[in-house]
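Reopening this one. Same input as before:
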Amino acid sequence: MPQANQSLVWILATVVALGPLSTDMYLPTLPQLGEALDAPVEQVQLTLSIFFAGFALSQLVYGPLADRFGRKPILLGGLVLFSLATVGCALADSIESLIGFRFLQALGACSGPVLGRTIVRDLYGPQRSAQVLSMMGTIMALAPAIAPILGGFLALWYDWQSTFVFLAGYGMLALLLIARQVPESLPADRVGSIHPAGILRNYGALLRHRQYLGYTLSCSFIFSGLFSFLSGSSFVLIDYFEVAQQHYGLYFAIVVIGYMSGTQIAQRIGPRYGIDRMLAFASLLATLAGLAMAIPAWLGIHHLNWLIGCQFLFMAGVGILMPQAMAGALAPFGHIAGTASALLGFLQSTIAAAVGLVVGHLHSGTPTTMVTTIAAMGLCALLSYQLLVPERPQRQGTAA
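Same output, byte for byte:
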C-alpha cells in the first residue's frame, strides 16, 4: 500500500477506535467509580450499556446524513460532540449525570466507526475493503490493548475521572487529524436523499436482503460476545479472582492480542480463501472457544488462566469474523454505503447493549453468567451465517 494510503488507514483507525477506547479505558475503574459515586453494580454497568444504546440510535442518523452531505463534515461534527461530552463525564458528580454524559459521548463517538467503514468502502471498493478493514482492526487493537493498562494506572495514581480527561484529549487530536489529512470520499454523483420516506425505504430494502442480514447478525452476535467480556470482566477478574486493579489491563491485553492475531490472519490469508470461508471458520472457532469456557463453569470449575486462554481464542475468531462480515454486508451497497454501515452498526450496538444488561442483572458473583453469554453469542453468530448467508448467491442491492 502506498505511504499516503497507509497514513490514511492509521488515521481512520484512530477514529474507529473511539468506541473501544470509550469502553475499555475505564473498565478497571468501574469498581472504584461505583464506590466514589455510591452506585450499585447494575447502575455502574448501565454506564456501559447506555453508551451502546446511544451509539446504536445515532448511527441511524449519521448514515443518511453522510450519504447526503458528505463523510467529512458529519465526522467532524461527531468528534466535536464526543470531546465536549467526555469533558462532561470527567466533571460528573453523580452516577445519573455520568450516565447522561455517557449517552452524549456515545452520540459523538459512533461517527468514527460508521464513517470510517464508509470511507474505506468508498475508497477501496467491495473486494479490497475486507483486507483494509482487517488492517485497521490490527492497528486500532493496539489502543484498547494499552488503554485498560493506562486506565488502571491513571486510576491508581489519580482517580477515575483521569481516564475521561485523557479521552477528551484523544478526541481533540482525532478532530485535528481528520480536518487536516482526510479527504471527502463521497462521489459527487452519489449524493443521497434525506427525505424520511427514502431513508425508510433504504433501511427496509437492507433488512430484506438475506445476505446483508446474515453478515450483519453474525457481526452483531460475535461483537456481543466481546461486549459480554467487556461488561463483566472487571468484576470477574478484580472481585472474584482478586486481580489487582493495576494488573487487570495486563490480562485484558492478552485477550486483545487474540483479536489482533485474528485480524492478522484475516489480512494475510483472507484474500486467498474469500470472505465466506473465513467467516465460517471464525464463527466455528468462537463457538468452540465459548463452549470450552462455559462447560467448566457450569460444573462449578473456575480457573483464571483457562478463562483467559479460551477468551484469547474467542477473540481470534472475532478478529477474523468482523472485518469479513462488515465487508460482505457493505459490498452490494456502494450507492448507500453510509446507510448500510449505519444499520449494521445500529443492530450491532443494540444487540450488544441488550446483552450487556443481561450480564449485569444476572451477575452472580462468579464467571458463570459472563462465559455462558459469550458461548451463546458465538453460537448465534455461527447460526446466523449458516442459515442466512450461503443459501443465496451474491447479488446487487436493490435499495433506492
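So the earlier flakiness isn't reproducible anymore. For the record, The chain has one domain: 3-179+194-388.
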